[in-house]
Amino acid sequence: MVDYSVNGSVAVLMVNNPPVNALGHAVRVGLKTGIERGAKDSRVRSIVIIGKGQTFPAGADIREFGKPSKEPWLTAVGNLIETCSKPVVAAIHGTCLGGGLEIALFSHYRIAVSSARVGFPEVTLGLLPGAGGTQRLSRLTGLPVAMEMISSGRHVPAKKAKEYGIIDEIVSGDLLKTALKFAQEVQSRPFKDRCLRYKVVPNADRVEEYASAALTQVKKKYKGFEAPVTCVQAVRSSAELSYEEGMKRERDLFLQLGQSGQSKAQQYAFFAERAVTKWQMPGGSYKTAKPLPVRSTAVIGGGTMGSGIAVCLLSAGLPVYLLEQNEKFLQSGVKLIENIMAGSVKLGKVSMETAKRAATLLKPTLSYDDIKDVDLVIEAVFENLDIKKEVFSKLDKICKPSAILCTNTSTIDIDRISSATSRPEKVVGTHFFAPAYHMKLLENIYGTKTSPEAVATVMKLGKTINKVPVLVKSCHGFLANRMNAPFGSEAIFLVEEGASPQEVDQVNEDFGMPMGPFKVRDLSGIDISWRINREVAKVLGTSITKETRFLGGNRYCGLNDDFYDKGRYGRKTGKGWYLYEKVGGKNAVADPEAEEIINSYRQRRGIVKRKITPQEIFERQFYSAINEGFRILEEGICNMPEEIDISWIYGFSYPKYRGGPMFYASQIGLQRVYDRICHYHETCPYSIHWVPNRLLKKLAENNVPFTQWANHVSKSKM
Ligand code: 3H9
């Protein structure tokens, strides 16, 4: 795992543990042995540590966390490097992260290629750097930079890292050759003063001021997360304690975080995000299917979703034809795109160059003829089957045979849309989440005839446009909206029965959702839910009236309709479930008029308001969604619980530190979840989503561990 060689008077320790040279046990042993050997080797006067392949070590081996730790620990290896009698040079390329950066900070010199990045991403795993990072970085960079870097987990480019003092020299050409030369040059220099443990933290007397500023920042930016706050505390101790005491404090805080539920959930989410890239479907998988090249695109529809999608494509450097049905809509779409771009530049999310390039890549058009040669089309017109079929029929006639035809439908079965074409194998769902330019989830959906090649293309496209793509099998509502349906319905039923929208929202926000369901409805528009309900009724061959209490045999609550009738559409009208300071305002406050609408609705229906506990609010929303999640797994709509959890994290901003609804269920205990679902099945009649799922029952009864759930899932996708 660590190859030892000697070149002239320099020993080279080459870490060879693909793909990211993680510092697992064997690597730690290899580094220890290599340093000891180099120190004793009479030919050697300095030592280079370098990574083979794509990177310098990108951190500790996360797979070892939670298992009994095996010596030598990383800190012991680091101490050996720092106290070595010969100077040690870290030669950095790729991503030098976490434990990797700690090893570099124990080394006496650090050189890097300009494309390298360094950072402490432990915080994103619910941890802090546990091998001296919090004590040593501040000695180099000062407290504010160390606090910010460690609590954010940001990857810092080599050039910036040099400005911070982390990197001594940026080098070009062959890294190993340059490192050998550098290591030779430093052989005659004294290097004790290069050992960070002997340095004092600059401006240590201002630690109180720096820590309080950093804490205010992280509490606001990472609401609910424990690790960022603990990171600041750990860095703070580097200024308040001796080096040895600080290292001990860091170790204690690292262990404390490591045992927390948040860290377990965040580590799970790290691997889950990678697991979902390994997609499979009948007839193909990520291993066998080859994506088609996507060099040009078209978006049909310049509304909110279409414009947002166009922004994603343009930002990734892809040319986009924006197609609309008339000049007015087209201009409005172009304006929306320009506004989103300008906003993103202002917020520093997109560079000015990217925005300028995007403007040249956008081609507004009213003619289908213009898009006949594009590689991929995304339809984002109104959520209506007839309209979508009309669009796909036109696309079928006009687009080149190899073009991939995508639909941004949020609910409609892909087969129903692809039936309008002569090439259903090229038709695939690419469901973006609003706002499309911001939310990271891309729910890709295959129909019964979609080819693995089309799927491979949109999975790759997801990565290209910086999304997290998750593949699901087509059904009504797919994965995310199918689970969101009971979650949202229960929120309204709870208000119907006696809770206030504020109480429901508070429970959700206390759990870590950025916004409660009623604030979300006000944001997305009550008129939108009103219209969706009518579409659902139409599909069911019925209509909704003031008296409707059931839809398709399921409980229906018309409260949303009452708000709609009063013209309260949400933020866009300045009032909805809440009152806002102005039309388009953001500050939601409780509104007596809204309360009046709810009370009169209850009176009309003879509902006696009752007190509902926060626990019931929580369970009815989240457990009904979890029950649906098991149904989705059982039906093979997805392959593994990770696909559900990642969809919630990136589609609905579910708190990462809870892992996702399925992981959360595993932490509560499936038997308890199942029992509560049975309870609500009895107490909340006429809701199919409370019928306890059989897969959940089976897993609960057999106490199946989370990692084995996928083995019990329908194999229909294989
Ligand atoms: C730490 O260092 C603690 C210390 O302070 C103190 C300890 C005492 N371990 O992301 P990719 C796997 S905490 C194990 O697709 P990319 C990954 O699961 C650590 N495995 O590649 C995947 O496996 P598979 C601090 C790891 O090129 C494969 O490698 N460091 C680790 O898009 C490829 O990964 C971090 O948090 C790991 N550390 O991105 C860095 N890292 O193929 C975490 C990756 O089976 N890693 N794998 O699915 C990353 O951020 C990205 O992997 C990286 C490369 C940017 C490096």
UniProtKB/TrEMBL annotation:
Keywords linked to the UniProt accession: Fatty acid metabolism, Isomerase, Lipid metabolism, Lyase, Multifunctional enzyme, NAD, Oxidoreductase, Peroxisome
PROSITE patterns (alphabetical): ENOYL_COA_HYDRATASE
CDD domains attached to this UniProt entry: crotonase-like
Compartments reported by the entry: Peroxisome
Catalytic reactions of this protein: (3S)-hydroxydecanoyl-CoA = (2E)-decenoyl-CoA + H2O; (3S)-hydroxyhexadecanoyl-CoA = (2E)-hexadecenoyl-CoA + H2O; (3S)-hydroxyhexanoyl-CoA = (2E)-hexenoyl-CoA + H2O; (2E)-hexadecenedioyl-CoA + H2O = (3S)-hydroxyhexadecanedioyl-CoA
UniProt-listed Enzyme Commission number(s): 1.1.1.35, 4.2.1.17, 5.3.3.8
Pathway: Lipid metabolism; fatty acid beta-oxidation
Single GO term (MF): enoyl-CoA hydratase activity
Segments forming domain 3-hydroxyacyl-CoA dehydrogenase C-terminal: 477-580, 619-703
InterPro entries associated with the record: 3-OHacyl-CoA_DH_NAD-bd (IPR006176), 3HC_DH_C (IPR006108), 6-PGluconate_DH-like_C_sf (IPR008927), ClpP/crotonase-like_dom_sf (IPR029045), Enoyl-CoA_hyd/isom_CS (IPR018376), Enoyl-CoA_hydra/iso (IPR001753), NAD(P)-bd_dom_sf (IPR036291)
Cellular compartments per GO CC: peroxisome
Annotated 3-hydroxyacyl-CoA dehydrogenase NAD binding domain residues: 297-474
Pfam families named in the record: 3HCDH, 3HCDH_N, ECH_1
UniProt entry tagged with the keyword Chloroplast: no
GO biological process: fatty acid beta-oxidation
Claim: Iron is one of the keywords in the record: no
Oligomer and partners: Monomer.
Family: In the N-terminal section; belongs to the enoyl-CoA hydratase/isomerase family. In the C-terminal section; belongs to the 3-hydroxyacyl-CoA dehydrogenase family.
Name of this protein: Peroxisomal bifunctional enzyme
Species: Magallana gigas
Upper classification of the organism: Eukaryota, Metazoa, Spiralia, Lophotrochozoa, Mollusca
